[in-house]
Specification:
mainly alpha, three-stranded antiparallel β-sheet, two-stranded parallel sheet, 5 strands, elongated, transmembrane, transmembrane helix
Length: 188
């Protein structure tokens, strides 16, 4: 299992690679392009497989049944991988983990699954961090919080030299620590 952290532009090949390697990875993020390239590959796989199995069932019955069984088993794999991909996509939009789990469970409730399917489609079309709020809450990440999907090194303060206020040369510049939540601290 590999943690998928898609950032920036994702090619078709990279999206397929991330989809297959992260088939049970529910952590990390997947971009819009990564999500939709993988979905396109799944649709193409099933269209080609359905046409192939239909052609074989009408001519060579045994071979057609074998192909149907292979596609049935691969459908289980692709269903699990698509669930992981959806988790990563929802997290990329800004949702936290617990609401995503509740959302996926509610998708199995008759009557709600149609509404949830439409909303899920809309969520996958949204850009990265669309639902990130000013302050963190139970549903979405906040701008002032550390991203739960990022490695802990990203949460560490960064040391930089502060620029002088005037053009007068200073023998030593103060050191300023910038924290992820926006705070600054000068170290003397």
């Amino acid at each position: 299992m590999r943690r998928i952290e898609e950032r920036g532009e994702v090619t078709f090949g990279q999206a397929i690679k991330d989809y297959i390697q992260g088939w049970v990875s529910y952590g990390g993020r997947s971009t819009r392009a990564g999500y939709w390239w993988a979905q396109l590959a799944v649709v193409l796989y099933f269209v080609i497989g359905s046409l192939l199995s239909l052609a074989l069932v009408t001519t060579v019955h045994v071979l057609g049944i074998i192909v149907l069984c292979i596609f049935g088993l691969s459908g289980i794999f692709l269903g699990i991988a698509s669930t992981g991909l959806a988790f990563r996509r929802y997290r990329d939009v800004g949702f936290k983990t617990v609401p995503i789990i509740i959302w996926e469970i509610c998708a199995f409730i008759p009557g709600l699954n149609g509404i949830i399917g439409i909303a899920s489609f809309v969520f996958t079309l949204l850009p990265t961090d669309q639902f990130v709020a000013e302050k963190e809450n139970w549903l979405v990440r906040g701008k002032d919080s550390v991203d739960e999907t990022q490695p802990t090194a990203a949460a560490q303060p960064q040391l930089t030299k502060a620029a002088p206020a005037a053009t007068i040369a200073s023998p030593s510049l103060p050191t300023v620590v910038f924290y992820p939540d926006g705070r600054e601290q000068e170290i003397k």
